[in-house]
Write a structure and sequence with these properties.
about 110 residues; five-stranded mixed β-sheet; about 35% helix; globular; 5 strands; alpha+beta
Length: about 110
């Protein structure tokens, strides 16, 4: 299976997980001029910008390590563009890592 399909399946799994946690998925693969956000969800009055890293054969922590300062900067820029047309009371940046060990959700990751 190619990396694009693995990523897409990981995002679908992450979206199902967030829904089970009571969140509403607003956007998938939101693209802006300087970045992409895998999932944008709403939890009560908070917009949650979520980066999904799928490493099905990897160890726990490999996916999170891939969300480096450059990646975080791209996500923040895309979120700022989204917020121009979708104001929110509060926001949060999460990471969901899917690895051989399972799914790990890190709230307020950055």
């Amino acid at each position: 299976m190619n990396i694009w399909k693995i990523g897409l399946l990981g995002e679908m799994q992450a979206a199902r997980f967030l829904k089970r946690q009571g969140m509403r998925i607003l956007e998938r693969r939101y693209r802006a001029a300087h970045g992409e956000i895998d999932l944008i969800a709403q939890e009560n009055h908070t917009l949650v910008f979520t980066e999904v890293k799928c490493r099905p054969k990897g160890a726990m922590g490999e996916g999170i390590a891939a969300v480096n300062s450059e990646k975080r900067q791209h996500i923040r820029r895309a979120a700022a563009i989204y917020l121009q047309s979708h104001p929110a009371e509060s926001i949060r940046f999460d990471v969901i890592e899917i690895s051989a060990a399972g799914l790990r959700h890190i709230k307020n990751a950055f």
